[in-house]
Amino acid sequence: MRLPSASFLHLTIPLAALLLAAWAQLPRGPSALDAADEWLRDRFVVAQAVDTLETRILVVDIDETSLAAHPWPWSRERLAELVETLLGDGARGVALDIIQGEPGDPGGDARLAVLAQQGPVVLAQVFDYEQRPQPLRFGQPAGGSKADTAAGAAAAYGYMANHAGLAAAPHVGNIGVLPDPDGVLRRVPMYTWFEGRRYPTLARALLDCCGEPPKVAQGAREDGFVRVPFTRSLDAYLVAKAGDVLDGRVDPSLVAGRLVLIGSSSLSIGDRVASPLGRNSAGLLVHAAMLTTLLDRDSGLAPAPWPGRLLAVLFAAAVAALASLTFARLSAAFNVLMLGAAALAWLALAYGLSAHDAHFSVSGPLLAILFLLAVGVPFHWQLAQSGSRRLLDTMRRYVAGEVVDELLRSGLKDPLAPRSLQVTTLIADMQGYTTQVESLPVEEAARLTTDFLDCLTRPVLEQRGTLDKYTGDGLVAFWGAPIPNDEHADLALDAAAHILREVTMLSRARVRAGGQPLRVRIGIESGPAMVGDYGTAFRSIYTAVGDSVNTASRLEQAARDFPYDVIIGEGTVAYARRHRFISLGQHTLRGKEHPMQLYTLEAAA
């Protein structure tokens, strides 16, 4: 089976990351991604919650001190007295976060029923959203409006309501909730549908009771549950102790004109829930937060809706496009840092966006970034490593393996940049090459050329030389670069002696096969040269340039006039420490103005 090409994967990996981000924005069932979303949103909620005083709402708390002065359970007379006191002090409306499931004292029940029917008072009932073998059926549901379908509302399967004596109350709010799978309460059903009727939540019922018609619920989910923003902590609400209200110790100005929620933060009563603001939040905070949200929405103070899902996909697309450009061009470390910066940028954007869109997936772009980090970066790093290995393998064909390893260990920032070094250049070719090959078939001529170049190349690399280039029937090599080496002259001379032996053996084999003998001409000179990567944007070569290189070429050409195969210049003799030489006298080389002393190896004489 044929594997996908690297270029194909280079494009599909960013595309796959983008598709992951887009998939994350689609509605789906509960998943680990949803858990990650909610965890991140909870962090945003905690960071964004303010303690700016909420002056439109008064929370009347049946706290521990109130219970100490007026022990629980309270009679209906006491509850009715509390509601009457608040209304008498000018409360705009009162909602009780308390269920009256059983009849109480007749007088108190009667007073409470009259208050609920004639005043701006909202009672509470609980709807159950879980299907149970034996559905909850306690009390008698009240309020609500007729509805043929559950569209736009949460379907309930049971209830816990007030006793029949309070069933005539026109305004009753649902305080039933359904926590998320992790047990944290983040959403409430704005409306609940049960047996042909539609019931509002407690906060909505309180506004309805006060003549505030509902505006279009922005961001409501299809199942009727809406996210509670929790923009304020409980400390941001005006709170009056229920005992102080009963005892007349609350200034009426604190109550006048405000919406009042009556509930309990007492641990003994147990109205506690886990919320994004804490694992042990007062249930009253949920209804206060929802009431704040509705007031802001109805007064035009709520954050304007933004297309969070679209922005998330566009952000992921930008990251994927950037990755497709940088992965193949820049280092893995840079790409990791780039993706980390992208993740931080998205979290900052999502932080601001979360107040404007309750449903986009915060973790969707992070999932795309994680995919790029886990798949894209290793893939392109592996491609780069493979390319480096291929480059090194190619380089080892021109430079001795030990030199390549030393070059990698050197830590030079740009080891191939042109620089001036002391080098020894060796130039060799076959004497009479044209005569040798003109009578041979093309295949034999090619084989002779390859065998001859092998005799030249192997000694160069074995002596840690750098192969500059082939010249058809010869080569140019040098020592002392890219890694400086004090033995550059001696190593070049060792290579020359080895070349002579290799060519001699090849020549003898050809003679035995009926061919002509071979002779190699070698010129060697040492001196300063500019060594580095030269060329253009289209093609470059690592080579040596300088007078000593030109002199080595002239020495190779001069070998045809001597009975010696190796002609050596003054510079190499000056640098050599392990070799002995035979002087050939002074000669003026072609292209040179002054004569120079020439030598050959004593062993080659």
Unreliable stretches: 217-222
What percent of residues are in strands? 15-25%
Helices, by number, come to: 17
User: In whole angstroms, how far apart are the ends?
Assistant: 62 Å
Q: What general outline do the C-alpha atoms trace?
A: rod-shaped
Class by SSE composition: alpha/beta
Instruction: List how many beta strands DSSP finds.
Output: 24
> Into which percent range does the helicity of residues fall?
40-55%
The whole-number mean of residue pLDDT values reads: 87
**Main sheet attributes: strand count, strand direction, barrel closure:** 8 strands, mixed
Radius of gyration: 45 Å
Verbal overview:
This protein has 605 residues and is α/β, with parallel strands linked by helices. The strands form six sheets. Strands 1, 2, 3, 4, 7, 8, 13 and 14 form an eight-stranded mixed β-sheet that branches. Strands 17, 18, 19, 20, 21 and 22 form a six-stranded mixed β-sheet that branches. Strands 5-11-10-6 form a four-stranded mixed β-sheet. The longest helix is centred in the middle third of the chain and has 34 residues, at 363-396. It is rod-shaped. It starts with 5 loop residues before the first helix and ends with a strand. Mean pLDDT is 87; it is low at 217-222.
List keywords for this structure.
605 residues; rod-shaped; single chain; alpha/beta
Describe the structure in brief.
With 605 residues, this protein is of the alpha/beta class. The chain is built from 17 helices and 24 strands.
How are the SSEs ordered, and which strands pair?
Blueprint: H1 6-24, H2 32-48, E1 54-61, H3 64-69, H4 76-88, E2 93-96, H5 106-118, E3 121-128, E4 137-138, E5 145-146, E6 154-155, E7 158-160, E8 172-174, E9 187-189, E10 191-194, E11 197-200, H6 202-209, E12 225-227, E13 237-241, H7 242-246, E14 259-263, E15 272-275, E16 278-282, H8 283-298, H9 308-326, H10 332-353, H11 363-396, H12 401-410, E17 419-430, H13 433-437, H14 442-462, E18 466-470, E19 474-479, H15 488-512, E20 520-535, E21 540-545, H16 547-558, E22 566-568, H17 570-575, E23 581-587, E24 596-601
Parallel strand pairs: 1-13, 1-14, 2-3, 2-14, 3-8, 4-7, 6-10, 20-22
Antiparallel strand pairs: 3-7, 5-11, 9-12, 10-11, 15-16, 17-19, 17-20, 18-19, 20-21, 23-24
Helix pairs in contact: 1-9, 1-11, 4-5, 6-8, 9-10, 9-11, 10-11, 14-15
